[in-house]
Amino acid sequence: MKKGLLVLMFSLMSLVLLACGGGDEASGEAEETEVIGEDVEGATELTFWTFVGQHVDLFRDSAKRWNEENPDRPIKLVAETYPYDQMHNNLLLALQSGKGAPDIVDIEQSKYANYMQGEPQLEPLNEYVEPVLEDSVTSRFEMYAKDGKYYGAPTHVGATVMYYNKEIMDQAGVDIDSIKTWDDFVEAGKKVGENTDAVMWNVGTTDYLMDFFPMVSQRESDFFNEEGEVTLDNEKNVDTLQFLSDVLYKHNIAELTPGGMNQTEEFYGYMNEGNAAAVLAPLWYMGRFIDNMPDLEGKMAIRPLPAWEEGGDRTAGMGGTGTAVTNQAEEAELAKEFLAFTKLSEEGNVNLWKVLGFDPPRWDVWESDAVRQDNEYYDYFGEGIFDMLLEVKDEINEIQLTEYTPDVATEYNTNVAENVLRQQSQSPEEALKEAADKIRDMK
Q1: Could you report the per-residue pLDDT of 93-129, keeping only the tens digit for each?
Q2: Domains of the chain: residue spans and CATH
Q3: Whole-structure pTM value
Q4: Rounded to whole angstroms, how far apart are CA atoms 275 and 262?
Q5: Burial of 372 (0-12, 13-18, 19+ CB in 10 A)
Q6: How many Å apart are CA 5 and CA 154, to the nearest integer?
Q7: pLDDT tens across 310-348, in order?
Q8: How many angstroms separate the CA atoms of 330 and 279, rounded?
């Protein structure tokens, strides 16, 4: 299927979805709307769309700081929160029609390629991005770039780490700092099984971002190459999926994740009761522990991922939202400057941690005292979070995103993981080749 036809079909599908949603106009109606700076005289209005209500907290704080520091150029920020699919569909329709788009918008990383086709209808941010790249995890900016132009400001690094239950690991007689490689992890898992009532780990089947993809990325592999060709069924990916099968059925150190993924109530209860010793997840998953697993406070420790070999990469950047300025912004320069103030400045990056609990893209902030002050994350996990991140900051590989990335996610979450990990009806090689061929046929 050609790219132009794909965009057309997506647009038609979006129209159908909107029609089924109650007859909203193309711009849709937000679930929540908040106005910051409404009472400020002479303020310029900027609209902001997001699909994550928590992100409004960051922009609310930033708008107030902006108005305090720029009394001659105040803004009135209209922040609108939409359901995930509705927002992305509405945005695509608005950009294609040339009207109805917001000034500033959050775009989830797997959707970004839809807005990069042809001439992007987003404003380049190079004048604000390039000065901070030297002190940032650059791979997180490259996801939102095309032809040397940067169109998105990342919300976090999403450094994937291993969370260990120290109580279980101590009971098993395992020093978590001795786990350097995945082979070490397997041997530690055997001790957990022999000496405790827990398993070492869980393997998910409905969210490839929570084990398969980060483990692939840390091997410098991906699902597409730089030319956009499908590499889903390459040798490293097959070997990685075989490893996930082996920890379940050969080494017997893991169980399938209750609920299919580690962001379900079923899993939270399971983990909170001490049924597993480790969780693989991005750093932003800290908030899931705090909100859903209160009994583990003081028991969890954060460490880098085991490497595939000594000296190999020990993390990967997973998940992410790039915030952009659309070309329909009437005050585009003001919108870009405010976005940079919110997410690219030093204070903005500090607030990504303080307000949202995210690992900010600027690693120079990781060295500052501002991110080392006591808060609920240190109370729960202890100190050393940013020291650990500084160790692995150069081990986060770039991810190749295409308009077919969501299709890979669908294939893995619905067919590959089900057939290989749950049903054991296909080998990793068979399942990944079948999925890769389906993606190739879409092009």
Answers
A1: 999 999 999 999 999 988 888 898 889 999 999 999 9
A2: 3-155+320-371 (3.40.190.10), 160-317+398-442 (3.40.190.10)
A3: 0.87
A4: 13
A5: middle
A6: 29
A7: 999 999 998 789 999 999 999 999 999 999 999 999 999
A8: 46
